Amino acid sequence: MREQSEVRSSSPYRDDPGAIRALFDDDRVHRDVYLDEALFELECERLFARSWVYVGHESQVPKSGDFITTSIAGQPLVMVRQADGSVRVLLNRCAHKGAMLVSAPSGNVGKFFRCPYHAWTYRTDGKPLAVPLRAGYEGTRLEACESSRGLESVSTSTYRGFVFARLARDGVAFEAYFGDVLKVLDNLADRSPAGELRVAGGVFRSVMNCNWKMYVENVVDAVHPISTHESAWQTARDMSQTWEHDEPKPVALEQLLPFGSSYDFYQQAGARVFAHGHCILGTQSSIHTGQGLPPGYREALAAAHGESRAAEILAFAPQNSMLFPTLAIKSTPQTMRVIRPLAVNRTLVEIFALEPIGAPAEMLQRTLSYNRLVFSPMSVVAHDDIQVFETMQAALAARGNPWVSLHREHRSDEKQDAPVDVSGNNEILMRNLFRSWVELMQRRPDGSSERAREHCNELA
Ligand code: FES
Ligand SMILES: [Fe+2]
Questions:
Q1: Ligand 1: does its nearest atom lie under 6 Å from the Cβ of 151?
Q2: N or C: which end of the chain has fewer CB within 10 A?
Q3: Where does the Rieske domain lie (predicted)?
Q4: CATH topology of domain 180-439
């Protein structure tokens, strides 16, 4: 049987930066980026290890010892609240033989982790605490071995309650990695009169048989809704035109109708791209502009932040923002999608509602309605997209042109130093993320951020 490492070393992309660069040709991208299993392995080792990836929200672990478990490209992680109030992210992997320390999606460990296998214990910061039969290790080399050093801690950064981790020891610092796209998170949190958000109402999970980048591109693809979601918005339009009841139209109709917005609308809606692959769709307006502001909300926001700041907060309501590579934010309704790659052709998307603390309860209800209607596994909108992603994954492998077009509004002198303001229809939003993809995927001369290789296992 061949060793895993032998299989991996056979990839033509592993040691050839030129081969990686050749996959993105300024205005088109090679289909291998969606189809090639070896490239997916490299994405796990390089791209997801070197970027700051969203892990969870502080509100999910309010008390000391509270934890949630998750994974980044095959790396099992546990995010845990410390006694001093800080939040840490650790590899969820016992230092003894590698058992997962906690398997539940969330819970409370109390004052320490205890491995379910042989009961080695660790403080919540990962430091080793106790080992049964300690005397049996005397005179052995355990002390000098990595096994005695506790749980591996991962670089963690928290911004307005959003917790991110970087698996690689070295890399771009958090603030430099995200830059001004962090204003999207400021805006989101400031939409709460208390300046605070809470993840509320559970989570929808949707697994689709497609490459994760298809989903990421779609988040900021303004040209598809009018055609892909035609049946949803036309049904909403027909129902709306014949609505004869006295009571107001249901929220669902209001939320579905704008999916028929025109190309011109998005041209004006505007977009912005940032360094490191991030972008905002809807810098000027969004199909949700003006929706979901219940009575008393503006007043509560003005009382908390002042009239002019409140007006500024409400005026900036991007339709979708992509904090590359895995966090998609909608400013109103306040929802986030977390894209979790499982395999080259399999992607999990988790959908959360964010409750603005101190705002009328109706806002959360509208967000939950939107998530059910548009993003969830029983959505009348997401099905349209998933159908396209899954058939695209199959059809891209068929004979024919191996290149995927990203030409819309491309200019040969396209400015590459983000940020850049563009129209909402410009495919620079996708070109920008592939520029970042190439950068993150190239091998560094010192190989410093390749340590994640040994942990990179495809999730079942
Ligand atoms: S594997 Fe954890 S204590 Fe043995
Ligand atoms: Fe869509």
A1: no
A2: N
A3: 52-165
A4: Naphthalene 1,2-dioxygenase Alpha Subunit; Chain A, domain 1 (3.90.380)
In whole angstroms, give the CA distance from residue 304 to residue 24. 47
Half-sphere exposure of 99 (CA within 13 A, CB side): 13
12 — pLDDT class (breaks 50, 70, 90): confident
Does the beta carbon of 117 lie inside 6 Å of ligand 1? yes
Number of the ligand 1 atom closest to the C-alpha atom of 95: 2
DSSP state of 444: P
pLDDT of residue 444: 65
Question: Whose CA is closest to 325, among 168, 177, 427?
Answer: 177
Q: Is the CB of 127 under 6 A from ligand 1?
A: no
- Looking at the chain, the domain(s) classified CATH 2.102.10.10 span 53-161
375 CA from centroid of ligand 2 (Å): 9
Among protein residues, the one with the nearest Cα to ligand 1's atom 3 is 118
Tell me if 115 CB under 6 Å of ligand 1: yes
Residue spans in the chain of domains classed CATH 3.90.380.10: 180-439
Share of the chain above pLDDT 70, in %: 94
What's the CATH code, domain 53-161? Answer: 2.102.10.10
